[in-house]
Amino acid sequence: MDDPEEGNPPAKRRKKASNTEVLREDVFTSRPELTIRLTKQTTQTLGLKDVSFLILEKFDYISFNSSSSSYLYYLCSSIFEVVSSKINLLHSKDSKCLADDSDEWTIVEITDELISGDYLLIIDEDAGTLPILILRSFMFTSCRTQSQI
Q1: Domain map of the chain by residue range?
Q2: What is the value of pTM for the model shown?
Q3: Which ranges in the chain belong to alpha helices (H)?
């Protein structure tokens, strides 16, 4: 059937490529390299099922934009429509899943270098009414109900 001697053309096959050309082998890790989550209280207030709202397998996916933690503050501020002065990010030094009130969290300053690990977003109570978030596969959209306008 695929024999060129019989006049049949060989079967079509894609060219062999190295893993670095198609998909690097180190793309998928056993644990995400960067996670940002909300406090359980904020998660309940927003009616979300999961505390994590940003999970990245590779730290490079976010660090290529900026090497400063100000970028994380910018992202969180944009997603939740809260000025950055009304939010705080905490970081887990050992990338452990810590309780919201754990003393092991360290405060992240806007001027700090961006590092991988687990982050906890705390939104100040006086930040105003948070938008209702509709999360759909890697896309964040927000809307406000008529009573919030």
Answers
A1: 24-148
A2: 0.69
A3: 19-22, 40-46, 60-63, 70-80
